[in-house]
Design goal:
The complex is a heterodimer of chains A (227) and B (386). By secondary structure, chain A is of the alpha/beta class. Chain A is globular, with a radius of gyration of 17 Å. Chain B is α+β, with helices and mostly antiparallel strands. In chain B, strand 8 and strand 9 form a beta hairpin. The chains are: A alpha/beta (227), B alpha+beta (386).
């Protein structure tokens, strides 16, 4: 299979006053289409930073990130925003749903940027919510849903535009075991059934075990590979 | 769902805060409307001035009289179409709080020079014939429930004694800016009594009103009139009607300037109120803006969302304020003495200012939150703890 993501010699540093704080050191990583990759490592190891760079919400200090043939490090803010909308689905630890919008409206949010008709949007949203098993909770507000259900709405929002890549930052970090398992099963299904390339940051070995590749980061370095 | 729906839902997110902000804007716009109405009411005399009327008054001060004999001399100047005169009668009607202008005039010519006071031919003819009659503006008739045939008793001060006048006509204003709060009396009637009781004051008028054929010659005719009476015991100062009215306002210019200033301070205050609300709202939503940016929303979308909410609040507050300004101004118009502000109404310019102020407030209040939302990087937005 093709390498859909090519991370080449990427470094990232932050600056606090005049002090440089290196977070990632010369990382190189290839991810094939349809892979489910778990990024593990202790807090501060740089896994979320790497995820942010791959998903185009942050830029590397050095190096190149090529996704589906596009060097996203060379895209401007506006082009990058458009690229994210078309290619990446995001799942966050704390769901990040808009509290004043219903489940349906939250999932519909990314579609506001498309030219789909109202009927087409409805169809996409309903399909996404049905995939995550919340077809009967469309008119519920986030506060009326459990944590697991909120995360499932967030996953529906991530897949509603049918992106090629899903990035998930500790998607089960705020959930109880049962809800976490439901989310992991759903992500496995998205990977296997819908061929989504998934990159998941997690602390949890049980969550990571659902991935077909696990990479460890420590102090900004990729240290080993396990299958 | 459209972005407009998100804006609407955001606006209603903190109902109490939004309600209080809208109420604040509403009250401020009403206060602004009232102050601007007072300012425009003060200028209404200038607005109502005619370009083809000149006012001739005593050069020393308006309060000193001019001789009646000047009338024919002024009328002889080329370009003068008609000369009439008026005199401040003063006095009290029922009690001192009932303030309105009471003028002794030349019954035969006054209404010719002031065509904006609409009086029927019959009423005018009666006024000309009956020397103890008077004509009142319809606002005065309304306020004191007067009708034709009623007697108005005035207690004189400038012209001492009890004076009874029979209402023979009620004039209507031709324009919105026309003063309909005057009581027009016969100067002849007053002067006749002066001849008997105080002969030294007989034959004096307050000021002349000169109607000219060509307004472009106003300056030349004014010069000619003043030159004619130079070095006489009663030198004149002739000016256009609007300058004359402006002179009245001049004496209150400090108050008007203060009101003007305060009215714009109020706009400043509502900007701060709304600005504070928007800053709080944007701060609370820092993480949500980061989510929206992550999903592909760009700067323009965020500007639309934040500016839209700010404008929605300012337009709602401004709109309610404007709607309520009418009854509130009308209420104030009822309780203040009729003659103090002859034309007390919300003028189009007040509406334009208020709408402009509401929109400007909406735009300016959103600038800082927009700037902050645009400058905050996505990753910083996610790290934000509100």
């Amino acid at each position: 299979m093709l390498d859909i993501i090519k991370v080449q010699n990427v470094s990232k540093s932050y600056w606090r006053n005049s002090l440089e704080i290196p977070v990632l050191n010369n990382i190189s990583l290839d991810i094939k289409e349809g892979e489910f990759l778990a990024l593990m490592g202790p807090s501060g190891s740089g896994k979320t930073t790497l995820l942010n760079l791959i998903s185009g919400i942050d830029k590397p200090t050095n190096g190149k990130i090529e996704i589906n043939g596009i060097d996203i490090t060379k895209l401007g803010e506006s082009a990058l925003a458009k690229w994210r909308a078309n290619n990446i689905g995001f799942v966050f630890q704390f769901y990040n749903l808009i509290p004043v919008l219903t489940a349906f409206e939250n999932v519909e949010l990314p579609l506001l940027l498309t030219k789909l008709s109202k009927a087409e949007k409805r169809q996409h949203v309903e399909t996404a919510l049905n995939i995550v098993g919340l077809g009967d909770r469309m008119d519920y507000y986030p506060k009326q849903l459990s944590g697991g259900q909120e995360q499932r709405v967030a996953i529906a929002r991530a897949i509603v535009t049918d992106p090629i890549i899903l990035v998930a930052d500790e998607p089960t970090g705020d959930l109880d075991k049962n809800s976490a398992d439901e989310i992991l099963i759903l992500m496995e299904r998205l990977n296997k059934e819908f061929n989504k390339t998934i990159i998941m940051v997690t602390h949890d070995p049980h969550a990571a075990s659902k991935a077909n590749i696990i990479r460890h980061l420590e102090k900004g370095d990729l240290i080993r590979e396990a299958v | 769902m459209k972005i407009l729906k998100l804006i609407f839902k955001n606006t209603l997110r903190h109902k109490l805060r939004t309600f209080l902000t809208i109420s604040g804007i509403t009250i401020a716009i009403i206060a602004f409307g009232i102050l601007r109405t007072v300012v425009t009411a003060w200028h209404s005399g200038v607005e109502a001035s005619s370009a083809n009327r000149l006012i001739v008054r005593q050069a020393v001060s308006f309060i000193f009289p001019l001789p009646f004999s000047y009338r024919d001399k002024i009328a002889s100047i080329p370009g003068v179409k008609e000369v009439t005169f008026a005199d401040w009668f003063g006095g009290t009607y029922i009690d001192e709080n009932n303030f309105f202008a009471r003028l002794g005039v030349d019954a035969n010519t006054f209404f010719d020079v002031y065509p904006e006071y609409l009086l029927s031919k019959d009423e005018l003819d009666t006024f000309k014939k009956e020397r103890n009659s008077c004509v009142i503006g319809e606002e005065i008739a309304k306020k004191y429930h007067l009708k034709i045939g009623d007697v108005m008793t005035l207690t004189g001060d400038i012209y001492p004694g009890q004076w009874d006048f029979v209402v023979c006509g009620i004039y209507k204003p031709k324009y919105q800016t026309t003063d309909a709060t005057q009581m027009i009396l016969h100067w002849d009637y007053i002067d006749e009594r002066m001849k008997q009781d105080m002969p030294s004051r007989a034959g004096d008028v307050g000021w002349y009103i000169v109607e000219i054929s060509d307004p472009s010659k106003a300056a030349l005719i004014s010069q000619q009139i003043d030159k004619m009476f130079k070095d006489s015991p009663a030198e004149t100062k002739t000016e256009s009607e609007s300058s004359f009215q402006q002179g009245f306002i001049q004496s209150s210019s400090a108050i008007i300037s203060s009101m003007n200033f305060i009215s714009f301070v109020i706009i400043g205050i509502i900007m701060l109120v709304l600005g504070n609300t928007m800053i709080m709202a944007a701060r609370e939503r820092t993480r949500e803006y980061a989510v929206l940016k992550t999903l592909g929303f760009n700067g323009k979308h965020l500007i639309a969302i934040i500016m839209g909410e700010s404008l929605m609040i300012s337009i709602l507050g401004g709109g309610i304020g404007l709607i309520l300004t009418y009854p509130v101004v009308s209420f104030f118009g009822e309780i203040i003495p009729k003659g103090l502000f002859p034309v007390f109404m919300v003028q189009p310019v007040t509406i334009i200012f208020a709408v402009g102020a509401a929109l400007l407030t909406g735009v300016l209040a959103a600038i800082f939150p927009i700037q902050k939302a645009l400058r905050t990087k996505i990753i910083d937005g996610f790290r934000f703890v509100g």
